[in-house]
Fold this protein.
Amino acid sequence: MIKIFLRATIVALAGLAAACTGPSEETSPPQTPAAETAAASGCAADPAWIRSPSLPAEVPGTGSICNFEQFAWQSLLYLVQPTAADPEILQFESFMPNYGVFVAAGGQPTPYGQHPPDPCNDPATVAAKATGAAPFVYSNIVKQAGVEQPLIDPNGQFAWYGLSVNETAYDMLTRCELYRSDCAGPLKPGNAGTVDLIGAYPNLAFPDGAFELKTAWKVLRPEEESSGLFYSTAGWIQPPGQGGACESVTLGLVGIHVVGKTPETPALVWASFEHRNNAPDCSDLAAAPPLGGSWSFFDPATCDNCTTNFYEPGQPAQVCRMHPQGDSTIGTFPAGQSCEEDPNQGACQEATKAMLAESTEAIRELNANVQEMIRDAGGAIDPVWANYELVGNVWTRGGVTPPQLQAQVGSLSAANTAMETFVQNGPSARTNPNNCFSCHNQDSGTFGRNLPPAGLSHLFDEVAPKSGGCADGSLPAACGPYTTN
Amino acid sequence: MSYLDLPRIHFGGQFQASPSTLNNTANNFDPANWTPELTELYWAPDNDGIFDLFQCKVSATPGVAPNDALVGQPVSAAYANAPPKLVDLDPMQQNVSEIWGLLLQVGDAAGAFVRGTFEPISFNGIWGNAQGANAPRSSASGSAVYQSTLTNLAWNAGGSAVLAELQERSPQRLSVRMVVNAHNNSPQNYLFDSGTFQKMTDAGVPQDVVDKLQVLSTYSQLSGATAGLIPTSSYVNFQLNLLLGEQVAKQYGATILDVTKQPYTPATTYQFDYGQIVGTVGVSGDDEPTFVVPARTLAPPSGSPCYFAPAKLRSDALTLDLANSLPVELPGQAPWAAKLGTLSLAYASPPGSTNYVPLVDDVPYDAAGGLMTTRTGVLDVALDAEQLAAVANHPLVLLGTPGGQRTVLLQENPEGLSLRADQFVFRLNPGVAATPSFPRGETATVNLYVRKFGEVAGTEGLEVGLSLLSEKEAVEYTENTLGTSGSAGIKNLSIPQDALKFDAMTATVDADGVASFQLTGTNPGNPRVYLDGNIYFITYDFTPKVSGYVGDPNDVVSVQIYEQTTIAGEPTWANGIGEIFSQYGRLYPVMAVFGLSDHASVKKNYEIIRKVLALDMRDPLHMPVVRDLSESRRQLIFEWMEAGMP
C-alpha cells in the first residue's frame, strides 16, 4: 500500500534525524522560548518539534495563549512520530489502551509496553500484534461522551473511539489500583467504593507528565484509503449489539484529544485536533472540503433544509462546526443569541472577547505555520499530518481547580466535530460556552463536594463494576506520591 | 452571629434571572388551551431558568482595616458548565422563587477567596420598592431578599484580612443575604401581522415561507393582549426553526426578525433578564438556623413607603439593614428623597410612646454617602454605654421628613417581638419517608423563631398559632402577590384541606426561642386536574395577638403536596408516561432538542434524560429545572425506563 510505503520512508528519515540529535526522550524540559521557528508570522512553530520530537514537560515561554497552542502542537507532533522500538508503531499507538488497564474483576492490567488482549481474537491479528508488524486499533466504543449517542457518517458507518494513556498516567492508575471499582469509588459515576476519596484523598491527581488521549476514527472506503488524505491503520471494530462480532477494517483518524498535565497546569491542558475534512462551518455549509474530496461527516447532496448536529438513530448525521477554533463569540449561537443580541453573556465581556480573539488568532496562525512546516520538512514527518489541525485548546488561569468557568482560558467553545458532535452548544444545544471542562470538572454527583483532581478524567467510566480492591478502605501505599500534589 | 455582625463583606453588581415563562401560567398546563390562540407566552417563553451573578464586586469589608485586598475582587457563581437555577414552586405560587445550585464565590479562585454552597432558599420580603408614577406595573418594580447560609466552605484567605478573620471565626458556615431588584423583564417584541408579512414579501422572503409563519399572528403574551406580538428573538428563532426548518430559517431569519422588530422600552436600566443585586456575607455560628437571622425587626406602619428592616444591637454598636427597606422612584435608582426627606434613627422611650430619643440625626442614604451602594444598605451606628443600655430594651424607630413632616417610617413594636419562619417552602411527597438525604418526604417541620429585642430572653412560653388558608383565601392571597398576580387559571387551591395535617395549630416557644410544628402531607389527589397535587398556604402569628406587632405579609409558608401517582396496569408511553413527558415537552421549549413530547425522541435521548432526572435536586443540572416532578412520578419514569420504555 502506498500509505505503508510512505510511512516506512518517513520512519527511516525520522530515525536518521533522531540519530543526529540523540535519543528522543518522552518529555523535554521547558523551552523558554522556542529558539528556532519556522513561522511565517504570529504564533510560531518550531522545527525541533519534528527534528527532535518530545512531549513537552511544561508549557513553553511565558505561558501565553500562543504558548499553550504550541504545547498542544508540539505534543501532537511527538505523538505521531514512530517509536524507537518499532518504527511501524507511532508514539500515540504505543500508549496503553483503556482495555489494557480497566480489566474485569480478578484480572490484571497488561504491563506497560505490551499489547493488551482485546476481544477480537483473530489469530492473524494476534500474531501481527505480537510481532508489532502491523499497527492496529481495536474499538468497541461508538457512543459519544455527553449524550451517549453515536455518530454515523454519510456511508452509514459509525465513528469509532479509542482511549489510551502514557506510561506516567498508567503508573498512577495501576499503583493506585484505580482500575478497581472499590478503589475508584466516586471517580466512576454511580460507584460507591470503599475509599473515601473526597474526604481522605482530596489531592489525588495524575502526576506531571501524564498524558491521556482520545482518538476518533472513521471506516475508510477503498478510495478514501488510497487518497492519502488520512492517517490510516488496520483496525478491529466490534459493533455494539451485534453479538460481539469483530470486523476488520481500515480506519482513518478523524480526531484526537491530547490531554496533558504539567506542574503549572493541574487542571490539565485539553487540546483537540481534527482532520480538516471532517465538517464545514455551520455558517458556510456550501464550503468545499479544504483537502478536496468530500466531507467526512456532512453530505451536501442530502442536506435539503436539513437539521445539523442532530442524532437520528440509524441515520447519518449532518455535521457542521458551530464555533470555529472553539471561539464562543463566532459561529452559530444557541437560539441565535450572538454577542450583539445578548451582550451580557460571559463570553461577550470585553476581557473574555479579547482573550478569545487572541486564542483564535493563535490557533489559526499556528495551524498554518505547522502545516507549512510539515510540508517543508523534507519527509522528516509524514505529510499526512498537515491534513490535521488544532480545533480547540482549554486550560485554567493559574491552574485553578476545579476548572470553574471564570478561570477557563483558551477556546471556551472547544468541541471536536467527530467526538462532541451533538453537544457543541451543550446537550440541550443551548449552552455557550461549552467545552471540555463542561464535563471534565470534578463534579462528584453531590453538589458542593468536588472529586479530587484525578476526577477531571473520565477514564474511570471504564472501571469494571464490582472489580474490588482497597479492601481496607484506603488506597495502596504505592499510591502515596499521587495523593499529595 | 450573622451577616449583621462584624467583620463582613459587602458586594454589589447585577444578577441574571431567566425563568421560562411558558410554564408561568396555569392556563398553559390545561390541554384545552394547547392551541396557539389560547397559549399565553408571557415575556420569555424559552428562557433557560438561569440565575447568575454578573459583574459583582466586593465593595467594602467593614470590621477590618480599610483597603482590604478583597475589595474590588469579583463575587460570582462558581461553575464549570451549569449555572444555578431560578425555580418557582408552582404556576399558582410564583412568589417564592428559589435559587438552586449556587456555589457562591467571593474573590478570585486564583487568589484570595472563599467559596461555599448557597443553601437553596426562596426569596422573601418581596415588595414594590419602585413607587414612582412611571415605575413599571410589574415585578420589575419589586425588590426581595435571599437570606441563606454558605456551607461546604473552601478557603484561601491569601492576603485578605477579612477572609482570614472570617475563616478564624466562622470556618464552617457563613451568613449571606442578597437583595435583588430592578429586574428588566421587558422583552424585545416582534410583531407578526398582515403588515409585517407584507414587509417580509417586499424584502424577498418567498410566499410559501411567509405562509408558514401565519400561525405566529395568533399567539399572544397574555389572554386578550395584542395578537402576533412574539417576545424575544430567541423564541422567534425557535418558532422559525420549528415552522421553516433549520436551513430555511437560517436563510430568512435575519430578514424576518428585522421587519418584525418593534420599538423597545426596557422595564429598568438593565439588560433584559438582568437586575440589580447587593449582598452581604458574614459570620454564622454552627448552631444558627440556616435561613433566618433571628434579629430585631422594624416594621412599616400603615401608609409608610418603606419595608421591614432587620437590626442587631452589637456590643458597641447598632446595625440596621436598609437594603430592602427604602423606596425608589424608578427601579434601580437611589432612595427616593421626596418620600423620605431626612432620615433619622431613634428609640421610643417609653416603649409605645412617641417620645423619640435620637441616635442618628441624618442617615446619609443618598448616592454620594455610599450607604446604599458601597455598604449595601447596612448602617452601623456606634453607641455609647448609655445608648447601648437604652436600645437593648426600647423599640427602634426610623423617622423621615417627607413633605417636611416628621413621620415614622419603620418601627419596632413596643414589646420588641419578632417572629419568623426559618423556611417558607416545603415539598411533600405522601407515602415517602422524609430523611436527611431526602427531606422532601411526607413530613416536615416548620420552625418559627421568636425574639424579644433580638434576644431569646423573654420569649419562652409565648404562644404561636398557625392558620391554613381556605380555598378562597389561598386564591386571593396568591392572585395578589407580586410574583403570581396576572396569571390565569388559578383555582382549586388548598383542597382538600385535610390533606395537610398538623400536629398542632398552636405551639409554645421553647427555651431556645423556637416554636415548632410538624406537617404531614397525605395524598391530595388531583384537584387541579392538570397540575400535580396541590398548594397550601399557612400563616402564623402570636396568640393571643401582640399589640403593635405587624407581621411581614410575605411570611406565608407554602406547602406543595404531590399526588401519590400510580398508573393502573403497565406504565407505557400511552399509559401514563407520555402524559407526564408531554407536558414538559410543551412547556419547556428550551428542552426542544430532547423532543419530550415524542416517544421515539425520549427513547433516543433516554440516557441523558435519566441522568439528569437522577441528579440530586441541589445539582444545577437536575431536571426538570423547576423541580416539580413528584417522587412517585420520578420513580415511575425510572421503572418505565428499566422496562425498556414500552
Remarks:
- Chain B touches chain A through 48 residues (CB under 8 Å).
